[in-house]
Amino acid sequence: MIDLIAAKPGPADRFDRRLLAPMMIGAVLNPVNSSIIAVALVPIATALGAPASETAWLVSSLYLATSIGQPLVGRLVDMFGPRKLSVAGAILTGLAGVIGVFAPNIAVLVIARVILGFGTCAGYPAAMYLIRSEATRTGMRSPAGVLTALSVTTQTIAVIGPTLGGLLIQVGGWRATFAVNIPLAIASLVLSLLFLPKSTALDATRPPRGRLDYLGVALFAGTLVSLLLFLMDIHLAQLWLLGLAAVFGAAFALWELRRPDPFIDVRVFAGNIPLLVTYARAVLAATVSYCYL
Asked: Could you read off the pLDDT of 246-293 as tens digits, one per residue?
């Protein structure tokens, strides 16, 4: 039954509206977990007897996993299609929710947040792939309504995350902020299986499997980990971490420039002022909002 529903083609002249529900629920999993933790840190620290320096890792671990995982999953979506990655992301999200519910200490909670980061980062790349695929299939280059709906949904859920977190804590304690991922993951899994197509209009452009840039991924991860460790404990004695991040970053850029199929094509940044301004605006907005949280 699932295969029959998923196999039905969408309308030839407009975006397939059945894709909206799995796209949106997949895309909101990360922003809701980014903001919901803000009000749970103090109850977690109190319950587990952990200092603030340790609870901060519950925030940073998800950001780190997401920042590494999102371009990685984006590449995997290009290679294997959005359906498989959406299903895998939903399973990881549900697993993280279960681990969080039964976690005995901060270390296990951090592991749950890392798994959550990798699981929830599948939604947005999968949605972008589906939008590109539908644009190719229908000839509609920019589905403004779909992009607007996706943007409004993700931004709204990030804003209401702390309120939702407070409500969950009041009703079921801080573990409820992890447990909420279980029904969300189940909904994402069911919707992905029901409505995401096994094949898309972009299948012919997929890169050959097995050509993932493993060294590029490792250098990118090394850059982010080193930078994050420095930012979490800014002291002169930690400057070597900043230098290490610069070395990893330079090596990453040089390696990617030499690759015919790079993990991240750094060439697109050269002289592309609108793209650079867009990224700078996004970084400033995220910095302000998450520092506030």
From this structure: 999 999 999 999 988 888 888 888 878 888 898 899 888 878 877 776
Maximum CA pair distance of the chain?
61
Torsion angle defined by CA atoms of residues 242, 279, 128 and 204, in that order, rounded to the nearest 10 degrees: -80
* pTM: predicted TM-score of the whole model, two decimal places: 0.85
- Of 166, 64, 80, 45, the C-alpha closest to 115 is 64
Residue 67 in contact with residue 125, Cβ under 8 Å? no
